[in-house]
Amino acid sequence: MQTSVLFTARPKPFSPLVSLKAHYNTPSTLKTGESMAAAPKWAQKTITLPPHKRGCHLITPKILKEIEQDLSGFNCGLAHLFLQHTSASLTINENYDSDVRDDTETFLNRVVPEGQSAPWKHTLEGPDDMPAHIKSSMFGCTLTIPITNGKLNMGTWQGIWMCEHRDYATPRKVVVTLNGI
Amino acid sequence: MQTSVLFTARPKPFSPLVSLKAHYNTPSTLKTGESMAAAPKWAQKTITLPPHKRGCHLITPKILKEIEQDLSGFNCGLAHLFLQHTSASLTINENYDSDVRDDTETFLNRVVPEGQSAPWKHTLEGPDDMPAHIKSSMFGCTLTIPITNGKLNMGTWQGIWMCEHRDYATPRKVVVTLNGI
Amino acid sequence: MQTSVLFTARPKPFSPLVSLKAHYNTPSTLKTGESMAAAPKWAQKTITLPPHKRGCHLITPKILKEIEQDLSGFNCGLAHLFLQHTSASLTINENYDSDVRDDTETFLNRVVPEGQSAPWKHTLEGPDDMPAHIKSSMFGCTLTIPITNGKLNMGTWQGIWMCEHRDYATPRKVVVTLNGI
After folding, report:
1. What pLDDT, on a 0 to 100 scale, did the predictor assign at position A94?
2. Per the CB < 8 Å rule, is C23 touching B5?
3. What ipTM describes this predicted complex?
4. Rounded to the nearest 5 degrees, what angle is found at the Cα of A49, between the Cα atoms of B91 and A99?
5. Which B residues in the span 28-47 are in contact with C, Cβ-Cβ below 8 Å?
6. Which of A152, B107, C76, C135 has its CA 20 to 30 A from that of C149?
7. What SUPFAM superfamilies does this protein's entry cite (chains A, B, C) (predicted)?
8. What is the distance in angstroms between the Cα of A12 and the nearest Cα belonging to chain B?
9. Domain residue limits, chain C
């Protein structure tokens, strides 16, 4: 195994300020051509989502409500969401027609067998448990979204979904980490 | 809900410079044992990919052309790619034999039903639309790749793919965020 | 194409220290209400995993052994893992019952056809090769995990899995990048 490098980021003395070039996402507080200097910031919090029934759920408003104030302090950065569970998932998909969420749940139930015909060994926690683990790895439990001018820079039709794969709803925790300047 | 912590990163006064230990990825401008100090940097841009036909496409050259110059300024960091759409996806896979991309498209079309036999409710935007949403969540719309010595540190055979899941090609936007020192 | 913005992060002169509010993840060295200042740090290393047989493997202990010492220096941050291969994958799932890993391997082999009946064009490297590429994109080759108080902030039942999709085991490389304060 190679040993690792530890980089401690310290500002170079007298390092010149960087000029911003013209582009669509100049932080709104700066004019093109102006220079900026900012300290990198980190913010981290754990959000507890209330129990959701099995299926796909749009959680953008809930997440935004929790982080909006902190988000507004970042001109440029990344927002990282991490679901601390193995039988639910996070994904980004359509934020408008709820049929898309229903159809996605239909797909997951078709592609991952459940019940008598399923070949699973892990069945102690119920017939929905092993399928839930598989669905969790198919969509994943983590998302990273760009921050631009104090907002999540998603596309017009994109929303954050939490997909609950268990029959019996429980609260779910999401660790949100913001990093940027 | 817990309140969040906001960490403002400021250098500790008199914090010692860190010695680099021997390893494969010492930044090329430093010799083993030398110390370094660098200010963290952020760069962000939106790349518009021209329309691609339905299927999997290798876009590494296109992405590199857009970010190569900025990349070269980072000794160590992360490159984040975010596709702002819900009917296409980003993934990392083989960069050599185009048959791998064709076979992956074949797989996606087998695993996600389309047309008359498909059980979807969301069909207003055409028979390829709901399958496209599902494929987008299967592969995801976001990638994070390590930066080492000014380059994307992918494996020999790895390339960045954009998978277009719609029949009618449209331009696709990717927000690229670079962060590192 | 828009030009990009390069943000050089420099501390603002006289920027005030931030007060930490009460919450579960106050860095353990600070009391609620105390203020903190810290320089952002980056650490990066490549870990070589020994050959694993085809299937899903829990690698949390192996990864932690390699990064634990560096991790302990971060109060808040992100750990990024990047598998440099296209026929294996990284995912987060159950860390306890090994049946979950076996069942996940069973699922992958059911959903991705292999052998005579499979429709693949890319067959030169063996019948397990094209299925391996597809499985790699299904689960992905990259993970980002929050760091809180010097530890990976995963849920109680979460573990890091490396899924080997090839029949013949080879060593696999994971680039780990730590970033935080």
Report:
1. 98
2. yes
3. 0.83
4. 60
5. 39-47
6. A152
7. YjbQ-like
8. 6
9. 42-111+127-180
CATH architecture of the domain with residue range B39-112+126-180: Sandwich (2.60)
d(CA C31, CA A75): 29
Q: pLDDT, tens digit, for every residue of A142-165?
A: 999 999 999 999 999 999 999 999
Q: Which residues contact C28 (CB under 8 A, 6 or more apart)?
A: C149, C150
What is the C-alpha separation between A140 and A96, in angstroms, rounded?
A: 22
Instruction: Enter the pTM of the model.
Output: 0.85
- Over residues C13-30, mean pLDDT: 30
Tens digit of each residue's pLDDT (9 = 90 or more) over C76-96: 999 999 999 999 999 999 999
**Quick check: B131 and B87 in contact, CB under 8 A?**
no
- Look at residue B94 in the predicted model and tell me its pLDDT: 98
Are A93 and B121 an interchain contact pair (Cβ–Cβ within 8 Å)?
Answer: no
Per-residue confidence band for C39, with pLDDT thresholds at 50, 70 and 90: confident
Q: How confident is the model at residue B124 (pLDDT cuts 50, 70, 90)?
A: very high
Share of chain C above pLDDT 90, in %: 77
User: Could you say which of B6, B7, B181 has the minimum Cβ distance to residue C38?
Assistant: B7
Question: For C33, how many CA atoms within 13 A lie in the half-sphere containing its CB?
Answer: 0
Structure tokens at B34: 């030398």
Task: Label each residue of A60-119 as H, E or C.
Answer: HHHHHHHHHHHHCCCCEEEEEEEECCCCEEEEEEECCCHHHHHHHHHHHHHHCCCCCCCC
Nearest to B43 among C5, C83, C111 (CB): C5
CB-CB neighbors (< 8 A) of A26 in chain C: 5
Q: Which residue has the tokens 């991790």?
A: C71
Share of chain A above pLDDT 90, in %: 77
Per-residue pLDDT of A72-113, as tens digits, reads: 999 999 999 999 999 999 999 999 999 999 999 999 999 999
Q: Place A7 in a pLDDT band, splitting at 50, 70 and 90.
A: low
Four-way CATH pick for C42-111+127-180: 3.40.1190.20, 3.40.50.880, 2.60.120.460, 1.20.120.530: 2.60.120.460
Task: Round to whole Å and give the CA distance between B181 and C60.
Answer: 28
Of A93, A155, A176, the CB nearest to B84: A155
Partner A contacted by C173 (CB < 8 A): no
